[in-house]
Amino acid sequence: MKFSILKRMRHLLEAAIVWIAFILFHYILPFKVSVNFGGWLARKVGPWSPLSNRARSSLKKCFPKLTSVEIEKIIAEMWENYGRLAAEYANADAFWDGESLKNIEIVGLEHLKHFQNDGQPGIIFTAHTGNWQMITLAAQSVGFDLTQMYRPANNPWVDALMLRCQKLAVKNVITKGKGGPKDLLALLKRGDHALLLIDQKMGEGISVPFLGREAMTAKGAARMYLNQRCPLLPARSERLSGSSFRVTFYPPLKFETCGDHQRDMYELLLQINTMVGEWVMERPGQWLWIHRRWKDV
Prior knowledge:
Blueprint: H1 2-28, H2 31-45, H3 51-62, H4 68-89, E1 104-107, H5 109-117, E2 122-126, H6 133-140, E3 147-150, H7 156-169, E4 172-175, H8 180-189, E5 193-197, E6 206-210, E7 213-217, H9 220-228, E8 232-241, E9 244-249, H10 261-282
Parallel strand pairs: 1-9, 2-5, 2-8, 3-4, 3-5
Antiparallel strand pairs: 6-7, 8-9
Helix pairs in contact: 1-7, 2-4
């Protein structure tokens, strides 16, 4: 009982902080001020968080040749990106107001349009790089409404706000959980399209190298490709400067099956993890190293 009360109090405190930040970012501060403030505050406070120790451990194991100074620079950049992202998350209309797209450069638009109009369902996969929500806004700007798989926050009051912000950037949401995979399959069978973030640690899945180290990897996207012949389109968000972004849509993945389902699953996931790993290595300060992506961290 005591633990339950303490947990509820912690959740209430967390929710109060998050809601105050949302009100500040969305209603009180001008957009540029809120983004700069969010980035500055996260850069100053974040490196002192216990979560940064997880980031340091992961960086040391993935990039053993980095100096401690270089690691701290990446961590500071990560937190600044995350702080800016929080303010941007509350202000999706600053990038797409339903009529014009602002501060988002799109590369590979032809791949997105072909993916949209090829008469097949499909999955766009991405990772927690830059501000990944820019991908759904870029898609909306050409009349392409995606459904995004959403992982609920553990704190129900925080989750309510996150879901509200999520729906500012994407119209349709599927909540991860017991019914999530079935809902995703039903959506694809209707011929629709979904966006999946595929770089988080999974309690289940299969072990596949990511950044040179074995990591439990979700099978959902690969399963849809192998079982449903569902095209997979890679998409990447990069922060260029301030709140200016580049969203790149790559050609759909090409993968030749060998007839051994388990081997095909492993090799396809390896191809996906390798691609995402290259994005992370190019801009390590824009990936969320605080994720518990590997078992030994």
